[in-house]
Design brief:
- This protein is α+β, with helices and mostly antiparallel strands and 119 residues long.
- Among the domains are: 27 residues, no CATH class; 53 residues, no CATH class.
- Helices cover 35% and strands 14% of the residues.
- The strands form two sheets. It has a three-stranded antiparallel sheet. The protein has a two-stranded antiparallel sheet with strand order 1-2.
- Strand 3 and strand 4 form a beta hairpin.
- The chain starts with a helix and ends in a 5-residue tail after the last helix.
- About 5% of the residues have low confidence.
Length: 119
Amino acid sequence: MNNSLLCLFCLAFAAASASVLPVKRSHLPAVNQHGETVWLDELNQGVPDKCDFACTDQDVEVCAHNGQCLQLFTSRCTMAAYNCRNPQKRFNVVENYRCTRGYQPLCSKAERKELQLTQ
């Protein structure tokens, strides 16, 4: 009987003095690719990329202009993904014939490299 009372007392004491420990988390905040503050360990696990569009090969090509040059994108989807990743260098859809009939210069190889276009 004494042993069981002692055990109950020890359990009650342990329960009263216990504290809930937080989940192990890096206490270093970081900024992800979208400018949002996240915990560093969340960044290492990989935050879903909001610009990772699932573009298909079935779409129609579109001609687009950024105020500097024309670019033929494989689809509106690929242009939207580019614009999502590069909001400061946005392209806007224009008539397709402008990319094929020489109305304005197409983006040169150097411009495509500067704009980080792989097409």
